[in-house]
């Protein structure tokens, strides 16, 4: 096992009807900015539950945070925070709203000239404005971690940020919210969480037996509940397991003490920036090619994954190869397509373009060995056409 | 899954050589009370590492905290805290030293007439004196939870306490400490952690698929590393997995959202109080009889455990029965005896005596259904002779 430090102070509040508990979690004298996305919370009843729970609070609202939270939109929210003397943020939404809220929690206390610096200069947030979340869309795990990914349309960039000051004070997970999530988003959520686990698992063995098994546990559970959830998102047990898997997939637990990859995300982010493909789908496009291209360095973990998660038997090398196929089939079972050409007709030249963008940005090497070059990336993206 | 809240703010610092990092974790102006047990840390080098790391601090020492931390001894430490105006506690030891330190963290701020009230009246500690730990003996998980068990020799009692104010600020887990742990304590640690998992798992299914798999992961890992550790505690990988399993077995993670039992502990504590049998060994004595006696209510989980953890196949009922036997064999493989008569010749009458003690104390019901009566307890203890 590698050395590690783990601290995650977020209070997780899980259960049906738990949104009503909001007022116990936010200081009574807080001036709250309620942040949300496209407004679906106003039709599915969550908005009403939140407002009822916070009836005694001084609340300002900011809706319209888009998927892949956009810097320019967030700057508008930042003005509201300053003009209205906001002291507490409440994100009601999925990963995009929560990530956007984390940016605001950081930017609200940032004293530099331009908030984009937090992202472009990788400034770690030690202290941010306190915030909580009500999760409406299980997927990213942002509700229990201290990281965020922000998009800047102007430059077609997605950049990440983080720091110990960006853990939510609390996150409410009510499995009833899952019933109003559209099929497409359910499939995205399962795919996103599954790939998060792969990024922290599909590397090379370091004798971290428990972390490996925890990672496998999350994947096994996602595989088990996926058909249940897709057919009946009102199945409260499966919905709860789904939410909890998404949270545990990226709250730091399974990444501690093991090497992590994240090359699939790095490449996937480029596809979203270029073609606006759903984040989760970009991961499903890249992951299989990435594992095939890096088969030699990932072989042992691919075999372990095939054996333990998919129950495959046979010669190790064969199990490893078949495990990649089973992963693709799993994505297909969710109606997630795994080739770039199934999302855009204009895919030609994408690989070269991404190679160029990575090269321009100053290359540090991708993957668990930091060894993948822009040329490797080009090949992997080409294999994903 | 049942509703739950989960928050664990302890910072875990894992790795070889991490004791040197102590000074980064304790405020520079702290007046530190260094607490330890029988003094083995002075022969195995850990004491020297701690002193070197804290060379610039103002440190007072209190050694001699016994296994099953004793109230009278802790009262002496409490006097030191008050006389010396201590502001920070540092536990260097195993579960007993850490539990004793938690009592002191609570008692230091307690304003009532008699600190034993914290235990006898189940007073929850919302705010305690800050403390950190250097774990020297993996077993109890106390290094990452907010509970403690304290013994009072005078009345032959073991009582528990806890509260959000009793999470360690940090805990340092250096796998190198495992090499100086005696065989007997290694066996105890593995047995203790394994039984902690059983207490939170061997109940009835509630559709908490991920918690079940996490629990099974810990047990599978303990089974895998047990022979390695017993033969060579200097195997750093296995030692690290062992430490991490013990921590994860009782840091709140696997108990959230599921029913828990803890009847084995309740009965085991009595055996320690009466005969001074090692805590872990009392669990190994009670657990098999407890599962046989409560077979009907625990059957489904026993079967799942047999299938997933021990890889047993066959008719469910048979798998469940054999799973109990495999658990006993596992304890035997660690040279842990599983019958009370193997520990004391004076076992006759124990069952009646424990029945009486529970009845006197005011009975609330034991186990996940709160349905076990003192009479049930008597039978289970008799089955354990």
Automatic annotation (TrEMBL), chains A, B:
Highest rank taxon of the organism: Bacteria
Keywords from the UniProt entry: Oxidoreductase
Signal peptide coordinates: none
MF term (GO), any: butanol dehydrogenase (NAD+) activity
GO CC field: cytosol
InterPro entries: ADH_Fe/GldA, ADH_Fe_C, ADH_Fe_CS, BDH-like
Occurrences of domain Fe-containing alcohol dehydrogenase-like C-terminal (ranges): 188-382
Domain Alcohol dehydrogenase iron-type/glycerol dehydrogenase GldA: 9-175
Pfam families: ADH_Fe_C, Fe-ADH
Similarity comment: family membership: Belongs to the iron-containing alcohol dehydrogenase family.
Name the UniProt record assigns to this protein: NADH-dependent alcohol dehydrogenase
Lineage, opening ranks: Bacteria, Pseudomonadati, Bacteroidota, Cytophagia, Cytophagales
């Amino acid at each position: 096992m590698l050395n590690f430090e783990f601290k995650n102070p977020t209070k997780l509040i899980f259960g049906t009807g738990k949104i009503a508990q909001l007022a116990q979690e936010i200081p009574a004298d807080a001036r709250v900015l309620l942040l949300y996305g496209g407004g679906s919370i106003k039709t599915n009843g969550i908005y009403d539950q939140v407002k009822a729970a916070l009836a005694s609070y001084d609340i300002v609202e900011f809706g319209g945070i888009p998927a892949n939270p956009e810097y320019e939109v967030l700057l508008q929210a930042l003005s509201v925070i300053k003009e209205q003397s906001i002291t507490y943020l409440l994100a009601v939404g999925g990963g995009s709203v929560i990530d956007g809220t984390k940016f605001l929690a950081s930017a609200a206390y940032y004293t530099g000239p331009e908030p984009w610096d937090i992202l472009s200069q990788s400034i770690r947030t030690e202290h941010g404005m306190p915030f909580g979340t009500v999760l409406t869309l299980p997927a990213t795990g942002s509700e229990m971690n201290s990281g965020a990914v922000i998009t800047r349309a102007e430059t077609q960039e997605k950049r990440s940020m983080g720091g110990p000051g960006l853990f939510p004070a609390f996150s409410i997970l009510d499995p009833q919210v899952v019933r109003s999530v559209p099929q497409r988003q359910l499939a995205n959520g399962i795919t996103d969480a599954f790939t998060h686990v792969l990024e922290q698992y599909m590397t090379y063995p370091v004798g971290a037996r428990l972390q490996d098994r925890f990672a496998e546990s999350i994947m096994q559970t996602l595989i088990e509940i996926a058909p249940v959830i897709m057919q009946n998102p009102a199945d409260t047990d499966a919905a709860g397991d789904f939410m909890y898997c998404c949270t545990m997939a990226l709250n730091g637990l399974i990444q501690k003490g093991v090497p992590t990859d994240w090359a699939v995300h790095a490449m996937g982010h480029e596809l979203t920036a270029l073609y606006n493909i759903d984040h989760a789908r970009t991961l499903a496009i890249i992951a299989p090619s990435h594992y095939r291209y890096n088969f030699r360095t990932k072989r042992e973990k691919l075999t372990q994954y095939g054996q333990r998660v998919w129950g495959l038997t046979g010669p190790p090398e064969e199990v490893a190869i078949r495990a990649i196929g089973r992963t693709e089939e799993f994505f297909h079972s969710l109606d997630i397509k795994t080739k770039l050409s199934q999302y855009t007709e204009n895919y030609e030249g994408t690989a070269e373009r991404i190679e160029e963008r990575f090269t321009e940005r100053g290359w540090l090497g991708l993957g668990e060995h930091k060894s993948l070059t822009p040329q490797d990336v080009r090949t992997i993206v080409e294999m994903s056409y």
